[in-house]
Amino acid sequence: MLPLLLCLVASQEPLRVEVRFTASARAEPLTGRAYVAFARKDSPSPIDATDGNGVPLFGVDVADLAPGAPAVVDASTFGHPIESLADLPAGEYFAQGFFNVYTRYERGDGKTIWAHADRWEGQDWKRSPGNLSSKPVKVSIDPRKGGVVALECTEAIPPIEFPKDTEQVKHLRLESPRLSKFWGRPIEIAATVLLPKGFNAHPDAKYPVVYDQDHFSLRPPGGFGRGRIDAFWMGDDAPRVLLVTFQHPTPFYDDSYAVNSENNGPYGDAIVEELIPAVEKRFRAIGEPWARALTGGSTGGWEALALQIFHPDFFNGCWALCPDSLDFRAHQIVDIYKDDNAYFIEKEFMRIDRPTRRQVDGNVVEMMKDENRYELAVGDKSRSGGQWDGWEAVFSPCGADGYPQRIWDKRSGRIDHAVAASWKERYDLRAVLEKRWKEIGPSLVGKLHVYVGEDDSYYLENGVRYFETFLKKTDPPYAGSVEYGANAPHGYGPDLPTVIRAMAERMEKTKPAEASSKAWRY
Fold this sequence. Notes:
Elements: E1 4-6, E2 16-21, E3 30-39, E4 57-65, E5 71-73, E6 79-80, E7 91-101, E8 103-106, E9 112-115, E10 132-133, E11 137-141, E12 148-153, E13 155-156, E14 169-175, H1 177-183, E15 188-194, E16 209-213, H2 230-233, E17 242-247, E18 260-261, E19 265-266, H3 267-282, E20 292-297, H4 299-310, E21 318-321, E22 344-346, E23 351-353, E24 355-358, E25 364-367, H5 368-378, H6 387-395, H7 417-427, H8 429-444, E26 448-453, H9 461-471, E27 481-485, H10 496-510
Parallel strand pairs: 1-11, 2-12, 16-17, 16-20, 20-21, 21-26, 26-27
Antiparallel strand pairs: 2-5, 3-4, 3-7, 4-6, 7-10, 7-11, 8-9, 10-13, 14-15, 15-17, 18-19, 22-23, 24-25
Helix pairs in contact: 4-8
């Protein structure tokens, strides 16, 4: 039985929560963010039940907090979906405390910030090694009567074991000199490599590489080992290529988006000039532009296109599935250049909420304001590790305080059009192509292939349509493809074996006359 903690302090004392951690959980002081979550049941745990549509979560920053000292959550602490502790309905709850540990970064750009250092969990604060949690405690709460709820974090999340190599799956992990210089401390990036069948039996063979972009994952590429591509990969007629995923979490998100940015640093350079050469040298890649191809979905779809566009001569084609917004006139369904507010459409006598996620039948799953305000409860200054804060870290200029400039006010949704203009200049991929097509277009002919569902769960088909409208007018013609899946949600596109076969076909057609494909066609 879980203990029942009654709030019986005198009514003149407003309701507050005190979250502490024990010296046995963490001996040294902590800078970061403290949370309390309230749920009607204890499974899943209250912390795990928080999200944009989840149970109430309240978060507050702490600095140099000693073991046993309280982090205080009270009526002034911002929360979601209930904004203030004073508005929590009276009743019985399971309460859980949590601490997200931040690290001090004295960056090479002269800025000093505090942010969560990824520990190979993929910037997931609920799973990050070293973060602290309490057990759920049953409490009786009535904000009108006040009282104190005391929560003690006694458990530290254990370290994550980095995967070991197998015969087919290999791992490469290296410290990036560029990123370490930027962040003022050692920063590692990594790759997971799926070797083709017969790799060890053909020691003289060199291989093309398929770089498959996605969110952070230490799992084998392509779902190998879970039955997704095993039969194809180990079959007799599969193109023999290296299939590679990257791991490049930042202090703001689980993924850097594979580009250089003011807030994340030179991840694009680190990937292209440090990580890819290390992969190709160690695993016997051909190492020529004609033998490199890109694919990915969602975040990975945007990354695949960005890598191809920003490095037009380095890769030989991109097959992007359901990519994040390719034109910020449709940042999902927000036009960041013309709209005044990301959360609401204002009418004379009412305002209409903007959705952020839907089902193919049209039912709305989540609203823009809720997903964003949840992120604000998790972390201020773009430090939630969430999707919208992740985009700010990539696309926004760095503010005077060292943190990303807000594209919109996180509470109200009011858009900052000066920040929007800077997004357009560097990261609106349609705008970048339109500005630079005469320069880079000839190197992109035949290389751009995009797939998206007509009912994408995040409305990403809108940005693809803007992107395609431009591509249809290009000179020279882009000679690629854009495909829409009828009534298809997020994730639409060909399966990986189909994509790999298309890549191999293009490599055959475009390889230099002196190059042979016999070595990787066994």
